[in-house]
Design goal:
The complex is a heterodimer of chains A (202) and B (756). Chain A has 202 residues and is of the alpha+beta class. Chain A is built from 6 helices and 7 strands. Chain A has 2 domains: 12-120, Roll (Ubiquitin-like (UB roll)), CATH 3.10.20; 133-195, Orthogonal Bundle (DNA polymerase, domain 1). The chains are: A alpha+beta (202), B alpha+beta (756).
């Protein structure tokens, strides 16, 4: 499971501890599985082919098993909307939505989200360029400054509103507590998210 | 890399105390980062100055032009730049705060898949450069085909160190108990003492005296986008995408660091993810990236990780002061004697301005910079001011209690005279009424129960004046398109939008009709975005260039409308005969008369359109649970001026952001060093605490528009007084002064225990 932002979960560290057992990587489109010490199949450390579903499109990549979802999309697919702030699941700049739940993509391995629906900020606006209501609200309320944390806040807000289309102030605060903005836009992010109407339950 | 260990060492000369001028006099030289420089150019021609008539664009709420790019992920930051054939660079850094590099062995690194090239930064054989002075100091660097392989290769570099004694603890250094010989001129640098009036007479006149020590801590910038660059060579010409607060200074740093002509370097920064003062100069990582790219023969990207950010890209120095102050029975501070110190790391200064703002006729002040083996300080959002504010304002409330005076009344008694750049008195009265100050109880909330509530107030000032050169280049083409180019950059303040606002306002257009082109050294010189000076440095040139281009357009249009050019005005998207709207041409039709050669005009900063120094006041309310020590800030009111407001929306955002940054400073962030190893124990974002949405109080911003003053910057002043106001709200709540930051639960509980 990818690491959900609101619960302790799977981390790269625990992956590295368990990768020798091979179970996690069972879904990999492995070239030739390697016999690990325990006699089970393992992959890596070299690059392996994987198939992801990103913003509704199939995406075939070759990545080492240790590569995070964030880095796979940023450096291998040039989907650079999601950002890396802390690389440890603390700042939320990398937030994506995987199977309807917000995740820290810096702390999620690319190979473990095969077969899941991955949504990133790059695919949030309509193909014709029309912004998602959350994106529009961020622009209208000046809920961004340098903008580096903004994609993460936008995705966290979308995740929140798809779960709670009419959130209470407390739900907004809790839903966005996993994201850090160093410019200090929180008041206006709160205002923006509060103003969004009509997001469909995901 | 031949960076000597003390390349950036500067003295710790305490800056002159800021004293606002008497009413009607010239404002003082800007303080802190508000560098102004003596204006050489003649004052602005009145026809170009900011008009006194109400504006349709300037001063309104204009949404950021680049908002859609930022919310959709289309905005390309340096971190996002990808060039053909690009590989990744990574520095090898010292784990020790002080050590000699004995040997560097790249053989294992060279066997890492994808390895490209390596670089020695600390040559073991060169005694001048083989010593590292802080954890994270650069030793070597590598490049490899992927970021993961670059990390592998850097880890595989075998460095042998001779660990040397390190200075870690400020108190030990001050007491002479720290290792000697670490810094060439000792661990402590004594600054020049400053005196005014007659201190002895001042204390003699005092009815009460107070002796206390106040202290602030070291914090780091924590820019969301780390420092770094992408460097690409074509022959001996370098193109660099840099996350920087100054494309032009980065260009000059590349040129001098690499020994190549400035004209061979082009620096680009279209979007950058926060700097707060730490990206004013190109760091060593920029030169490393350029050298790796030269050696590898392909473009190299080198972005620092979060740990490197904490260790080597600057910090806000600590400040502490042992203060003795005297106050007369009627509430005038008669004497101030401060012995201050602080650390800006290895060779960095820790200047702080004491006393802060308040007039004290008789005073003595001594200062010592303490050098310890950590990364050097860099300017951080209002350098010196938040520290000075805390050290001064906590004392103010303690003195007010000694004479049984309300803190607002006590401040009013000790302020400099009111002036356009010294408006604290008015703001204190206005804020007290708006905040409900009359409901404030005396020190110590008498309410039963464990949750106590209190209010505090503090004031601020900042320079924020403009300066040249910052030439703006306006082009109006025959299809009506308008482009404004200049070599400034948008560090998140909204500068790109501001370029469009000033230009559109001058041309009678809307900001969306203007194409701002910034963030590239090809557009010419402009200042660093630091010291809250960008709006004030760029806006005069923008306005004048636009108006000069408009004059040329009017000349072309005048014959068609049967008048002379000076009878025309540009308003509402039309060029019309003054007071005769029926005789007009649309902007598009007017521009058709331009012909194949676009109209171009250029203008620079002019004095008279900007001013120096701002004033602000902030009130804070906090709740403290005396069982847990947890502080919750519930309300902040920020009253702030910045001269002529150019964009109300983004100027307010600067104030919101300043308040949030100071809540972090007051309650959460703290660079923690291991007392034995000197290594930072929280170089991340989970133990280096920062506020989240639930920690944010209700923040009310009252922006004061003072058009007659021209433009003054606002980026820094709103972050100055908040921490002191919060600390005073805590004091008012729990009845005990907490005299150091951050206000952690442990510290609150300890203070309460000492009181009991």
């Amino acid at each position: 499971m990818p690491r959900r932002k609101d619960e302790p979960g799977f981390t790269r560290r625990s992956f590295l501890k368990t990768v020798g057992a091979g179970g996690v990587a069972a879904g990999v489109l492995a070239k030739t599985p390697v016999k690990a010490q325990g006699g089970v199949n393992a992959v890596g450390p070299g690059a392996v082919p994987i198939l992801l579903n990103v913003n509704g499109q199939p995406l075939r990549l070759e990545v080492e098993p240790r590569v995070t979802l964030l880095d796979a999309l940023r450096t291998r697919a040039d989907l650079t909307g999601s950002k890396r702030g802390c690389d440890r699941g603390a700042c939320g700049a990398c937030t994506m939505i995987v199977d309807g739940r917000t995740v820290y993509s810096c702390s999620t391995l690319a190979i473990e989200v095969q077969g899941k629906k991955i949504r990133t900020v790059d695919g949030l606006a309509s193909p014709n360029g029309r912004l998602h209501p959350v994106q529009q609200a961020f622009c209208d309320k000046d809920a961004l400054m340098c903008g580096f944390c903004t994609p993460g806040f936008v995705m966290a807000s979308v995740g929140l509103l798809e779960e709670h289309p009419n959130p209470t102030p407390e739900q907004i605060k809790k839903g966005l507590d996993g994201n850090i903005c160093r410019c200090g836009t929180f008041s206006r992010v709160f205002e923006a998210v509060s103003s969004v109407k009509g997001v469909r339950r995901g | 890399m031949d960076k000597p260990p003390f390349a950036k060492a500067t003295g710790g000369e305490p800056q002159a105390p800021p004293q606002a001028p008497p009413a009607g006099q010239t404002p003082p030289a800007p303080q802190g980062g508000g560098r102004g420089g003596a204006p050489q150019a003649p004052p602005v021609d009145p026809k170009y100055n900011w008009p006194s008539t109400p504006r349709t664009v300037v001063g309104t709420r204009v949404k950021r032009l680049d908002g859609p790019d930022k919310v959709s992920g289309r905005a390309k930051y340096t971190f996002d730049v990808k060039r053909p054939g690009m590989v990744y660079g990574r520095a090898v850094r010292s784990p020790y705060p002080h050590a000699r590099v004995v040997s560097i062995d790249f053989s294992a690194a060279e066997r890492v898949p994808g390895f490209k090239t390596s670089l020695v930064i600390r040559d073991p054989k060169d005694p001048k450069t083989n010593v590292v002075m802080w954890q994270g100091d650069e030793v070597a660097a590598v490049a490899a085909d992927t970021e993961e392989h670059a990390i592998d290769a850097a880890r595989a570099v075998k460095v042998e160190y001779e660990v040397l004694p390190a200075v870690i603890n400020v108190d030990s250094a001050l007491a002479g108990r720290a290792p000697e010989g670490v810094f060439p001129n000792g661990n402590v640098r004594v600054g020049t003492a400053q005196d005014a009036g007659d201190l002895a007479a001042g204390f003699k006149a005092a009815a009460h005296t107070l002796e206390q020590t106040y202290a602030t801590h070291v914090i780091t910038h924590v820019c969301m986008e780390s420092h770094g660059s992408v460097c690409e060579w074509e022959g001996d010409k370098l193109t660099a995408w840099v996350s920087t607060q100054g494309v032009n200074s980065a260009r000059d740093n590349f040129a001098s660091g690499l020994g190549i002509p400035q004209t061979n370097v082009r620096v680009i920064c279209q979007y950058m993810g926060g700097g707060f003062g730490s990206k004013l100069q190109l760091g060593p990582e920029g030169l490393i990236c350029a050298r790796l790219a030269k050696q590898a023969g392909v473009p190299v990207k080198l972005m620092l990780d979060r740990k490197e950010e904490h260790l080597v890209t600057g910090n806000r120095p600590s400040a502490a002061a042992k203060v003795k102050a005297g106050v007369s029975a009627d509430g005038i501070i008669t004497a101030y004697d401060a012995d201050s110190w602080g650390t800006g790391g290895a060779g960095g200064n820790a200047g702080v301005q004491l006393p802060y703002i308040y007039l004290i006729a008789n005073r003595h002040r001594a200062h010592r910079d303490v050098y310890i083996n950590t990364g050097q300080q860099r300017p951080m959002r209002a350098p010196g001011h938040p520290q000075a504010s805390f050290i001064t304002e906590i004392m103010m409330d303690e003195l007010a209690d000694l004479v049984n005076m309300d803190p607002v009344q006590f401040r009013l008694k000790n302020l400099p005279p009111e002036a356009p750049n010294a408006m604290w008195g008015s703001y204190l009265r206005e804020g007290a009424a708006a905040f409900g100050w009359s409901k404030r109880h005396p020190t110590g909330d008498p309410t039963p129960g464990s949750v106590k509530t209190g209010m505090g107030v503090a004031i601020c000032t900042w320079g924020g004046g403009g300066r040249g050169p910052s030439p703006a280049h306006c082009e109006i083409a025959s299809d009506g398109s308008v482009t404004m180019r200049l070599g400034t950059q948008d560090i998140g303040t909204g500068q790109r939008t501001l370029v469009a606002i000033v230009t559109a306002d001058a041309l009678g257009l809307q900001p969306s009709q203007i194409t701002p082109e910034i963030g590239d050294t090809q557009y010419g010189a402009s200042a660093n975005s630091g010291g809250s000076t960008t709006a004030s440095s760029t806006s005069p040139g923008l306005r004048i260039a636009a108006l000069k281009a408009l004059e040329a357009l009017k000349e072309k249009v005048a014959p068609a409308l049967g008048v002379t050019a000076d009878a025309l005005v540009a308003t509402g998207g039309r060029i019309q005969v003054k007071d005769t709207p029926s005789k007009s041409l649309s902007w598009a039709d007017a521009c058709k008369r331009i012909g194949p050669q676009s109209i171009t005009a250029q203008a620079d900063w002019q004095p008279g359109m900007t001013s120096l120094t701002t004033s602000g006041v902030q009130f804070a309310e906090a709740k403290v649970d005396i069982k847990t020590g947890i502080v919750k800030v519930t309300r902040v009111l920020a009253i702030q001026d910045c001269g002529l407001v150019l964009n109300k929306l983004t100027a307010e955002s600067q104030a919101y952001g300043g308040v949030v940054a100071a809540i972090n400073f007051a309650l959460f962030e703290d660079r923690l060093l291991d007392r034995v190893t000197g290594q930072m124990v929280n170089p991340n974002m989970e133990w280096y605490l920062l506020a989240g949405m639930s920690d944010i109080p209700q923040i009310d911003v009252r922006l004061k528009n003072m058009p007659e003053r021209g433009v003054v910057g606002i980026g820094e002043p709103p972050t100055v007084p908040t921490a002191a106001a919060i600390a005073l709200a805590v004091r008012n709540a729990i009845g005990v002064s907490v005299r150091s930051l951050p206000l952690t639960p442990a510290k609150i509980l300890e203070s309460l225990q000492q009181k009991a």
